Amino acid sequence: MDTTPCYIRTPLGRDELQQPKLGLRPRCRQLLFVLDGTLSVAQVAKSMPGISDLEGTLQDMLKLGLICASSEASAQASLSADFKESSHDDLADKLDHAMHRSTNSGNRFEDAKRHAVDMMTALFGAKSSHIDKLAQASTQGELLAEVAKCKKILGAVASSSKAQHFEQSVLAALK
């Protein structure tokens, strides 16, 4: 990642600071707070040395629509509207529904894959490359590799318990 860009909160990011719905970890919330369009990535790294994998966290926040490059702030308004349109007001209810919805097609692999896709869609909306990769997994190994990547993202932007629960629920569906 280039260290010269400056990132700024989108309207969705500002909303998340005022009324948390995504369950961001405290350090991620702090990062979101300091991203005001004036600090470069290098300056943020110096001011917040406790954030491991700053680049990955910034990429995850970009994918969630919480931040954008300060030069793209006006264009981000339409992206933020699309994200809000695809997300529900009560994220916890949507996630709970996805967690407990069970499919029983007789094919454990397909059921586990559908479960993983449903959970990630509940958290991030339908516009995520990770959801596409989960849906395209053709073997159990590919699915588990994508689940591990999603677990890392969930741990960074939500909580380690949500991330762990996600992984365990997919593994349980495979059994």
Topology:
Layout lengths: L5 E4 L1 H8 L7 H9 L1 E5 H7 L6 H11 L2 E3 L3 H14 L4 H10 L7 H17 L4 H8 L3 H18 L2 H15 L1
Antiparallel strand pairs: 1-2, 1-3
Helix pairs in contact: 6-7, 7-8, 7-9, 7-10, 8-9, 9-10
Describe the structure.
This protein is mostly helical and 175 residues long. The chain is 67% helix and 7% strand. The longest helix is centred in the C-terminal third of the chain and has 18 residues, at 140-157. The protein is elongated.
**Distance separating the two termini:** 39 Å
Low-confidence stretches: 74-91
Beta content comes to 5-15%
State the helical fraction: 55-70%
Tally of alpha and pi helices: 10
Q: Tell me the Rg in angstroms.
A: 17 Å
Strand sequence of the main sheet, in spatial order?
Answer: 2-1-3
**Number of individual domains:** 2
**Order of helices and strands, N to C?**
EHHEHHEHHHHHH
Q: What is the structural class?
A: mainly alpha
Number of E strands? 3
Silhouette: elongated
Mean pLDDT, all residues: 77
Please summarize the sheet with the most strands.
3 strands, antiparallel
Quick synopsis:
The chain has 175 residues and is mostly helical. It is built from ten helices and three strands, in the order βααβααβαααααα.
Keywords summarizing the entry:
single chain, mainly alpha, 2 domains, 3-stranded antiparallel β-sheet, 67% helix, 7% strand, elongated
